[in-house]
Amino acid sequence: MFSSILPGTATPNSGRSASPSHDMTSEQSRPAHPAPTTRRRRIVVAMTGATGALLGIKVLIALRRLNVETHLVLSKWAEATIKYETDYHPSNVRALADHVHNINDMAAPISSGSFRADGMIVVPCSMKTLAAIHSGFCDDLISRTADVMLKERRRLVLVARETPLSEIHLRNMLEVTRAGAVIFPPVPAFYIKAAGVDELIDQSVGRMLDLFDLDTGDFERWNGWEK
């Protein structure tokens, strides 16, 4: 009787290993992805030479208390204004931040869109810096990082300090607003009936950080007319 399988014909299992390890799917053989880790929120704080240095200092203090990772950039004139307007030295202000970057270091991490940041606040923001951001003239780390925030569609708050405002200032503010930035003039809220300048500053700082969904708890919010 002839065999039912002709000579030279492959059997159904020929060329295959009987080992079950070769039957594992590619998904089973891949290493498991590590569980994502939760990072601290991260905000860039830039200070320019406009008046109002205490606003930037108070922002840094509030962010430290809220456990937000801060990346600070000081301009040369910001350092001069800090010494003139406050009892702080620039070294004391740098100590309030988690990371400090030189304004001329265009290779700093914050100069790249691949650096994960939750936003940036320029406080106070001079009209020179506003003009640089509007034109996209990235000649220092402040204007470059602000440009990154706009192109990556991240929150950019400019605490503009100037009065009165010229048509040039207003046009620059309009254009950066259209590009996605928020112009925040630190206008005092007289309705809080502040006992002094510090309370007015705390209210302004609190409203600035509201824009990043951060609550300082340092000021009284409007709840309607008090009876």
TrEMBL record:
Region (Disordered): 1-40
Lineage: superkingdom: Eukaryota
SUPFAM superfamilies for the chain: Homo-oligomeric flavin-containing Cys decarboxylases, HFCD (SSF52507)
Residues that bind FMN: 49-51, 75, 126-129, 161
Pfam families noted in UniProt: Flavoprotein
Role this protein plays: Flavin prenyltransferase that catalyzes the synthesis of the prenylated FMN cofactor (prenyl-FMN) for the ferulic acid decarboxylase FDC1. The prenyltransferase is metal-independent and links a dimethylallyl moiety from dimethylallyl monophosphate (DMAP) to the flavin N5 and C6 atoms of FMN.
Protein's name according to its UniProt entry: Flavin prenyltransferase PAD1, mitochondrial
Lineage summary: Eukaryota, Fungi, Dikarya, Ascomycota, Pezizomycotina
